[in-house]
Write a structure and sequence with these properties.
This protein is α/β, with parallel strands linked by helices. The protein contains twelve helices and nine strands.
């Protein structure tokens, strides 16, 4: 049985109204591309941008293509969905998710459009971006709103604006929402949530630090707004050679100990029992699955 593809490490945003940037996005090594019809497109350009995205999605590409549609409260959301839902669309990103009925409404519309396009139910995924205090408070309801929901994502810009928040250079101001996203995702049976963008596109060290903090907290993957951020995200959210070596040594030593009748050992001075072995096996599985270039 083929191993499932791992969650994407990098989602690269590309403005749907910018021809060169949306085409180039698919050649930057990102695990997935998000064609943006929302914040990146002015109101009077949305119709043309929507048509351009539909045309682009008609050409098969190895990199999964997602589309950030306009919010359900906007006058553009339904037209966005109607234009882009089809075989070339991996999923829809819903901005500013705050209520479960937003997700269930989106799910219903996508189901109808899937049927019209001859696609199986649930073919098109959904990511809900949590970007407000209300969204954070209703995370549990959002995470369980529909089986179509693929992952939760975090949007720091609107969240900071909503709360009048300065995350700080160490991002201490967003530690709570990151941790809450991780816990709720796990409790709902979802993959780990995707972390927010870093808007300082020329500061590689800042991006690395942000991604590393997110990974330590249990998030997986990063929303990117510049091609230079993609390889950094792919690196941070993949096991290092040292981590793979550690995991392999732990599993081999534990299996040998089990054969000898023991279930608790030490490896390089570290106590190893079943939870540690489970973490090691997960690391090895991720390292193997990342050889499959696909996004989720």
């Amino acid at each position: 049985m083929e191993s499932p593809a791992p969650p994407a490490r990098s989602y690269l945003f590309a403005p749907a109204s910018h021809v060169r940037r949306r085409e180039r996005a698919f050649d930057c090594g990102a695990d997935a591309v998000i064609l943006d019809l929302e914040d990146a497109v002015a109101a009077d350009e949305k119709t043309a941008a929507r048509a351009a995205v539909a045309e682009l999605l008609a050409t098969p590409r190895p990199t999964p293509a997602w589309v950030r549609v306009n919010g359900t409260e906007s006058p553009w959301c339904f037209a966005d969905l109607e234009a882009v839902a089809g075989p070339g669309l991996a999923g829809v990103v819903l901005p500013k998710a705050e209520r479960p009925d937003q997700l269930t409404s989106l799910d219903w519309v996508l189901g109808q459009l899937e049927h019209r396009a001859g696609l199986g139910p649930g073919t098109i995924g959904m990511m809900a971006l949590v970007e407000t205090a209300v969204g954070v408070e209703r995370l549990g309801e959002l995470a369980r709103a529909t089986p179509r929901l693929t992952r939760l994502g975090f949007g720091i810009a609107d969240y900071s604006l909503d709360l009048g928040l300065d995350a700080g250079d160490d991002e201490a101001g967003i530690a709570y929402v990151r941790a809450r996203l991780v816990h709720v995702s796990r409790a709902a049976g979802l993959p780990p949530p995707v972390d927010s963008v870093v808007v300082q596109v020329r500061e590689a060290a800042r991006f690395r630090d942000s991604a590393a903090r997110a990974r330590r907290l249990g998030l997986f993957g990063k929303l990117c707004i510049h091609p230079d951020q993609v390889p950094l995200a792919n690196e941070i959210f993949a096991p290092t050679p040292a981590e793979v070596d550690w995991a392999r040594a732990v599993v081999l030593a534990f299996e040998a100990a089990q054969r000898a009748g023991s279930a608790a050992i030490q490896v390089d001075g570290e106590f190893v029992d079943y939870p540690v072995v489970a973490r090691a096996r997960a690391t090895l599985a991720l390292a193997e699955r990342l050889q499959i270039r696909a996004g989720a």
